[in-house]
Design brief:
364 residues; alpha+beta; conserved putative lor/sdh protein from methanococcus maripaludis s2 fold; 4 helices
Amino acid sequence: MAVRSWLLAGAIVSSLAACGERTPAEAPPRPVLVAHPAASDAGQAAFAGEVRAREESPLSFRVGGMLVRRAVDVGARVERGALLAELDPGDLALEAGAAQARLAAAEAELVRARADRARYAALAEDQLVSRSTRDAQEAAYQAAAGQVRAARAQLDVARNQSGYATLRAPAAGVIASRQAEAGQVVAAGQTVFTLAGDAGREVAIALPESRIRDFRIGQPVKVELWSAPGSHLDGTIREIAPAADAQARTYAARVALDADGAARVDLGQSARVYVRAAGAVPLSVPLPAVQRGADGAASVWVVGADARLKAVPVKLGPFAAERVPVLAGLSADDWVVVAGGHLLREGQAVAPVDRDNRPVDPSP
């Protein structure tokens, strides 16, 4: 009986020892919240602007007078050569008539001078008048011919000015503004309309003097219309003024939109232009994604292609309220654990999900 008791006890001990030698089963993959590094706001500036036409032409009459007719309104689309406005042509017609009369008088004087020249030339051949008298008649004839040429040129000018009484569109476009009304007396060169041409659409902005070295012509930017928040259009800085405004101390700049973006904007719309300065940090991660290792270096958990965690050392920029710029160590395609990193370990199997609780495939 005692022997059997000892044998039973030995079997139990052996069984317990065998159980202790088994390898514990690996825990199931732990769900983790992941996200790609986002574009960083560090070094990115936003400037308020207004959609303008690339070509804006102030239109004016080349002569002065009373505006008697306005043929278009603001916002009207016009084609090249379309009639826009007319001046009272009365005074211009009278001036053209006076120039015609002066030409007729000059031509009559030329006929008389030509006849005198011929007559005195014949007398000089017979030595009935002196050579100096003949030269005087020749000079009178040349002067009369010059008066005819001058009168004819004045008549051409007067006729041209009669044509200047009508204002026509120099190119196809949209009437952006009007500065005169029918019945108003306008001077030569005074703006009557502003024509926004069809050559393209741009956003006019002002760059601060303190950061002007951070921007360059051809630099890509993003344009967001105030009427369509969250929707960004591609653009480039087309020009930067060579000198700052004397009062505002800002540099006027124009941002050109591509053909697709230009078709989606209207003149006068307000916009916000996002410009990333040269050398700006492209990526950032949420603050909870950053971990501190035993050596105090910063790192983040990155989910590898095998769905296991890997601590990746990163170089960080200045911390913001919610995010921190990543200067080095990450790429835009990495899946970074953005919550609960202090509960994880190297090589741990995880089940990554996004913020909508959808599974994420970490394989490239």
